[in-house]
Amino acid sequence: MSGFVHYWLSTLDPLSNAGFSLAFPKLMITPLPHWWLLAVLPFVFMVFPSVAVWIVYVMKPSSIRPPLPAVPDQALPFVSVVIAGRNESETIGECIRAALLCGYPNLEVVFVDDNSEDNTVAVARRAALTATGSGRDGNRVRIFPSPRRNGKPSSLNIGIRMARGEFIIIIDADTILAYGSVQHWLVPFRDPKVGAVAANIRVNNSAKCLLTRFQEIEYALKTSNKVFQARFNLLYIISGMGGMFRAEILRRLGGYDTGLGDDRDLTTMIRKQRWKLALSVDAVVWTTCPETVNHLAKQRARWRRNVVKICISKHRDLYVPGRYGLANFMVAIEVLARIIIPLAVAAALFWTIFESGPLGAPEIISSIYWITILYLFMKMMIARDISNSPVLKNFLLAFLFPFYMLFIVQASQIYAEITELFRIGSKHYYVPDHIWEEIPWW
Amino acid sequence: MCFRHGSSSCRLFSTVERPVTERRETNGEVSAVARRRLDLLRQISDAGGTLSPLAEPNGKYGYRYPVAGDNVEDDLGSLLERNYLEARFCDRVSLCPRCGSHHLNVREVCPSCRSAYLTSEGLFHHFRCGYVGIPSEFIRLGDRGYRCPKCNGTMRHLGTEYDRLGRAFVCRGCGVISENPPVEAVCLSCRTRVAADKMVSTVVFGYVLSSRGAAAVRAGSFFNEAEELPTLEGAPIYKRPIILQFLEQEFKRRERLNSKFAVLLARFIQDGTDQGAAPSATEWLGRLRDCLRDVDLVGQLTAALYIVILPDAGPRDAESMRRGIAAKLGPQSPLDLSTPDIANQRDLAELLLLA
After folding, report:
1. Residue B222 pLDDT
2. ipTM
């Protein structure tokens, strides 16, 4: 065992013959499918979209970050910011103030309180008063305290019904709109086929701890991927943390369906209506990330269960070729791939270790590690160039980032996939009982 | 015209005592107003000492005072200001900021289209699909409940299949739903639309006869307020009887407590030329007051002679202060300052005779 550890540690040195410099060529000439599974496939999924986006960005920056058109204030469309929250007294005040003071003149805020047990409503009303000042401006904020807990989708539906805007922004109660973001958010809607636009989500509390720094890197890496997906109409989610929609679409759909995964479900429904989805890199919203491993694992497990529930169960008709178009079919396949690939990689790893014997495993593991680091640095630099994130001092965390993804994110996701597929504990505490009992989807 | 000095350029008299002069010149008119107000007090007294407004749609603010008749608000305000009456709150009336009318139609309006065509409805929430809408959007199935317009599911049981999310105002014009719609008023007189926070308001009072008012009714006349004041109108100058009392007090203190004091005489001299925009006598006296200490007392002995009592000051202090004050007032000052030696009340009497 000690010999194994010593050998593995020696292979971590990329300059040694046993390390990456030797392992990478070995992978290329191996007759086994290692090369494809450990180097080519991750490159195609992880790095190629970012590289392609970066090349386009370097050649024509305005195609990725279009400049703001000169529009007089009177011509700006009316935008409603809909927020739903429960027991969010610590964050809702800042959220409402930021929305009102984001520099967009033609905007209202609708906050629906999902029967909070703390003083969320009082904080929201105070924030509305302090941010608007006068009684006339007070009409810019409308607060609906729900008399019964109904869950987030239903609360958002109330907000959508109350919203007056031509466009509706949906954000979480712990999200902060950056100044000037709404103007940028509206730019992709010049294309009449665009039905919804995702925001560039940044981490507000990234300096809090190591875990939030990792999440900042993760969100930044996702942004460049989303740019690629949006360019090819493959964007499959408008995050609930920050998304702008045409109000007519939301009203025509009847708002969100109840249950988990409101954002992914809604995005899928919009895609089925053949609307295009876009991303605005300059529409920045700041979100507060989990600061403990337990909280983060629960969050990721919830998200992954939603993927399984929505994409495999509720919207499985997406896998029928031709029913909703090629793009939607590809999106469905990609989502499926995102579930299967981690499992396949894990299987390939075990297969390789089993085949190579105990002394061969360190070489493979170190190969995977250094390949990942190489790809990661490439993606981080591209993300940094396009969206100014992650911050430079977080670059050093790239060496630890694979462990964060493997032992926290992937582990919780694989756990969630297995439990969801076997219907273990599928009822989530986020959904009230009286709603859960009526949901027909699962 | 200075009645006392026979000179039209006596600016002292024309400023400090002008109100008295004016009262004399408009004596007939003032008397008519005073009579009317005294009658008003008598009416209130006869009605039990209380004047309560009654609701009257055609009244000025929607109220009228039954005993007193119409258009008495100004008289009541004047009597209240002079403490002949005490006010009792009755109501607060909102008025149109444009025409002042109280004929306002106050109602909630749609925050989007400003229409007042709002209905208060309980929103339905269908648990199965999460749809939220007003009841009229759901298809009524007779006694079997409703049908959801989103998922086409039936909603039979309130509380288990669907719920009411409290009441909200729904605009029948544009369909916007709002929890707390803004309040707006339309003036029925001039059709002006005004937001609730822009409406002006006034308070309608009832009145109670005060003890001073009751005394005026008994005496059959108002009190002369100018005579009741210890100082001259418009200037911080004590009247002659008051300042002489202070002076007498200082004499007593000097005899009993061996304290000292000095006096400063200020004689107002007019050169007879037109002064144009030069400062008035009141302003000069104000400047003199500013040069003195807080404890110093200024009073009027005659129309043109003023005395300043300087407590805790000797003759040398007084002379020093006189020079300082003269320097501050400047050479164009019409006040001739002197520091007479007044050792006892006999000296004072001689001084008054000379004045």
Report:
1. 83
2. 0.81
Which member of A145, A157, A162 has the closest CB to residue B178? Answer: A162
Q: Are B262 and B315 in contact (CB under 8 A)?
A: yes
- Taking CA atoms, A126 is separated from A31, A87, A122, A310, in Å, by 68, 16, 6, 38
Question: To the nearest whole angstrom, how far is the Cα of B159 from the nearest Cα of chain A?
Answer: 8
Q: Which residue in chain B has the smallest CA separation from A435?
A: B127
| Tally of CB atoms within 10 A around B182 | 17
Can you tell me the distance from the alpha carbon of A244 to that of A81, in angstroms, rounded to the nearest whole number? Answer: 9
Beta strand pairing call for A175-177 and B297-300: unpaired
Contact A92, A85 (CB under 8 A): yes
Point out the residues of chain A with pLDDT beneath 70.
1-39, 132-138, 260-261, 352-353, 356-364, 426, 441-442
User: How many Cβ atoms are within 10 Å of A216's Cβ, its own excluded?
Assistant: 22
User: Looking at chain B, which residue has its C-alpha nearest residue A150?
Assistant: B127
Handedness of CA B92, B97, B103, B108 (dihedral sign): negative
What is the nearest CA distance from A149 to chain B, expressed in angstroms? 10
Does residue A216 belong to the interface with chain B, where contact is any CB pair within 8 Å?
Answer: no
Given a cut of 70, is residue B265 above it in pLDDT? yes
Whether B165 sits inside 8 A of A148 (CB atoms) is yes
d(CA B97, CA A287) in angstroms, rounded, equals: 46
CA distance A339 to chain B (A): 27
Q: What is the spatial distance between Cα A433 and Cα A437, in angstroms, rounded to a whole number?
A: 6
CA separation for the pair A32, A216 (Å, rounded): 36
Query: CB of B185 within 8 A of CB of B194?
Result: yes
SS3 B318: helix
Contact B165 A434 (CB under 8 A): no
Least Cα separation, residue A24 to chain B (angstroms):
52
**Beta partners for residue B329, in sequence order:** none
Q: Does the beta carbon of A254 lie under 8 angstroms from any beta carbon of chain B?
A: yes
Is residue B158 classed as helix, strand or coil in its secondary structure? strand
User: Which residues does residue B208 pair with via DSSP β-bridges, in sequence order?
Assistant: B50, B86
Task: Please classify residue B281 by burial: count the beta carbons closer than 10 Å to its beta carbon, then call 0-12 exposed, 13-18 middle and 19+ buried.
Answer: buried
- Give CA–CA dist B168/A275, Å, rounded: 32
Round to the nearest angstrom and report the end-to-end CA distance of chain A.
Answer: 47
pLDDT tens for residues A200-255?
999 999 888 999 999 999 999 998 889 999 988 888 899 989 999 999 999 999 99
Touching B: A residues 99-128, CB under 8 Å: none
Tokens of B317: 């202090």
Q: What tens digit of pLDDT does each residue of B197-241 get?
A: 888 988 999 999 999 899 989 888 888 766 667 777 667 788 888
